[in-house]
Amino acid sequence: MEILFVLVPASVVLMGIAMWVFVRAVDSGQFDHLDRHALDMFDNDEVHDNEHIGK
Amino acid sequence: MTTSMFHVTDMHCASCEARISHALKAVPGIHAVRTNPTRRELFVEHDNNKVPVLDLFGRLEQLGFTPMLEAENDMASQRKDIKRLGIAAIGMMQVVMQAIALYVGDVQNMAYEHVRLFQLASFVITLPVIFYSAQPFFFNAWSSIIQIRLPRDLLAGLSMDVPVSLALILAFSASTFTIIRGFGDVYFDSVVMFTFLLLTARLISNGLSRKSAGVSILSLLPERCTVVREASDVEIDVSALVVGDRVLVRPGERIVADGVVVEGTAHVDESLLTGEAHTVVRLAGDVVTAGTSNSFQSFEFRVQATPSESRLATIERLTKTAMSRRNGLPDKASRIASYFVCTMLLVATCTAGYWIFHDSAQALSATISVLVVSCPCALALATPAAITAALSRLQGFGVVVRDGDVLRLASDVTTIAVDKTGTLTTGRINVSQFEPLGKWSKAECFKLGAGLERSSNHPIARAFHGIDATTMQQVRIDPYGVTGECEAGLVRIGTLEYCSPRADAPATTSVKRSVWLSVNEQLAARFELEEELRSDAHSTLEAFNLEGLELVLLSGDQATNCSDFSDYLPVHSDLTPEAKRELVAQFKADSIAGKANILMLGDGINDLPALAEADVSAVVLEAPDVVQSRSNVLLLSRQLRPIYELILTARKAMLIIKQNMSWAVGYNITMIPLAASGYLAPWMAALGMSLSSILVVANSARLQSREL
Question: Strand, coil or helix: what is B404?
Fold first, then answer.
């Protein structure tokens, strides 16, 4: 069970990374307005004209 | 005297609220403090000369809170909350896993080095949780402690986070001590679980307060609109609109501000304000209101009130103030909450003392459990959560309740007195009977009548619209009728005297309202009129009956105009204001042992005495200010359905409050002794306490559903 002395510290490090990534995700605004994007389909966005497809 | 409103996101419980009230009320220059804990709103009435707004900010910050003037700044604090929760969650997953290993190892005689390994790893992972995620608890606790000056502050001024912080500190220190010493138990799992669960409960109740704050009527308005400028149409942000701007509204768009139509015809759906979905026509010169939506054709209007100054905004502000009124029930509950904290600390001390003498191994665990398990949150949240949910639901039905106590009163209402027939009728008048008085046929009479009434928009005239009409010349609209000329001669429609001044009144046996038609001053016909009943009038009345609610019509109008309705409900007509009041008082006296309340719906000054006498007074928004300020319920539309919803919601709210209180009391009475006797491990206590709070909030949220 000596492997525990490697695995346990490794998991602590992994947790640290996970926490850091999470904080960055929140700061980038990923968790703001979680409901809002469901309503995106009601927006009247500009219709991309298909002219350029032929060109 | 200024009233300032603050949004205090970290005022998350009744004891926080009690501390703020307590501290602010002691300041000279502050006249009144009102709060709505579930919406985190604080209203302070203060003398702006003695205590300026900045001073209030400072004081609130001193107490350890973060006041904000606008709710939009919420996003930053919401992000912080999520970060704290996320860190606690990630930490909890690891630490609990390691704790399980340790528990198992206890039984299986794990090697010492492995035990130390897991304990050390748990310690490291717990560090960010306790020093970052749990920060708010320590901060609140510390702030409440340092501002204690008098002994009575101890009773009312201690934050609920004091026992929480104490528990966390005890558990963490003991565990750290174990690490240093090299033997003993660790409680890191309790620390992280407690932090995580408590933060979750707070985030959920924050979310609830944000949601009801976000049922903002103003959020219904679009963000952009089209303004007509000299050169061309420009699309701008609604927030940039000024009075005088000319706005183009296309079919399907929502009207973004209050204004006057200047070009085109607006077909407006005003259901937002009146609850009626059929479109209303607004011509040039007519007023349109922000929030209503346009159909059929484009039109342009000139802005008279920007969105923030519009009728909508006024309603929004009224609602906010209404929701913040203090009332009997939550006050009691928050007082209980503050004494609770003190008592809990006492109980914890006794528990510790007892166990140290009898079996000191249990002492720490039992004490922590006691501190953690007792949750006044359920007690203090129970009533405000239910009331806020109820008020929020009612807002969706166009009912603005002025204070929470009204809900209690409304739940006991059995009789509803309405003042005008407008609640049951559509406003349309129809011709119900025809009596020929001369030689003209029915068709001819109608044609003549229609010809005259074409040019008038009077409700009676509308009864004749849409029929084949004789073309009339020289049409003149007078106060008592309409005159015109055609081949047949001089035609008049209106009152008896107007049509035929010299005629003797033919005895008419009818009690209903009539208009007469005359040709060349000879009576030709009598049209009997009736007000059109709303299509849902019958079902509404039936619904009321099913719920044991009695509807009564109290009208100042003549008996003839009210007689249509005597089939449906008891009608009292020709009433003076005083007579109305007496009737209301009589209804109250007649009820069984005064238990039944009466709700009065009025709209004018002549209803004031009766409104004051009634238990619940409701007025429509069109009523003059002096009437509105004396009533406790505002209705956005003159209909019966909102009243029905008010009473039913009130009843349900009272039921839910009772449920919540029973649960809260039962929970505490059961769990505290269990914890004190050592039967509850700290992590179980943490779980129980958080679940209890969530249960209370969730139960109250039931009030928000569309159907009760």
Answer: coil
Three-state SS for B517? Answer: strand
* Token output for B286: 């007519």
DSSP string, B246-299: EEEE-TTPBP-SEEEEEEE-EEEE-HHHHS--S-EEE-TT-EE-TT-EEESS-E
**Residue B110's closest chain A neighbor by CA?**
A1
Contact B114 A19 (CB under 8 A): no
Is A31 within 8 Å of B111 when comparing Cβ atoms? no
Backbone angles phi, psi at B249, to 5 degrees: -120, 120
Angle (CA) B326 B332 B333, round 5°: 100
Which amino acid is present at B472? M
Cα-based angle B161, B392, B275 (whole degrees, multiple of 5): 170
Using only C-alpha atoms, chain A has a radius of gyration, in whole angstroms, of: 23
pLDDT in tens, B229-279: 887 888 888 878 888 889 999 888 888 888 999 988 888 877 555 444 456
Would the CB atoms of A4 and B90 count as touching at under 8 Å?
no
- Provide the β-strand partners of residue B6: B42
Count of pairs with CB atoms under 8 A, one residue in A, one in B: 43
Q: Indicate yes or no: CB of B83 within 8 angstroms of CB of A26.
A: yes
In chain A, % helix, strand, coil (3-state, to 5) comes to: 65, 0, 35
Q: Which two tokens stand for residue B193?
A: 């679980």
**A31: contact with B, CB 8 A cutoff:** yes
The Cα of A6 is separated from the nearest Cα of chain B by a number of Å equal to 10
Do the chains contact at B121 and A5, CB–CB below 8 Å?
no
Which of A1, A11, A19 would you mutate first to test chain B, the one with the most B CBs within 10 A?
Answer: A19
Q: Which of B83, B111, B118 sits opposite A23 (nearest CB)?
A: B83
Tell me, yes or no, if the pTM score tops 0.90: no
Greater pLDDT, B207 or B215: B207
**Tens-digit pLDDT profile for residues B153-187:** 666 667 778 888 888 898 899 899 989 988 778 88
Distance in angstroms (rounded) separating the CA atoms of residues B457 and B471: 17
- Residue B154 exposed, middle or buried by CB count within 10 Å (0-12, 13-18, 19+): middle
Q: Identity (one letter) of the amino acid at B510?
A: S
Residue B363 tokens, joined: 């002492």
Q: Is B86 a residue whose pLDDT tops 90?
A: yes
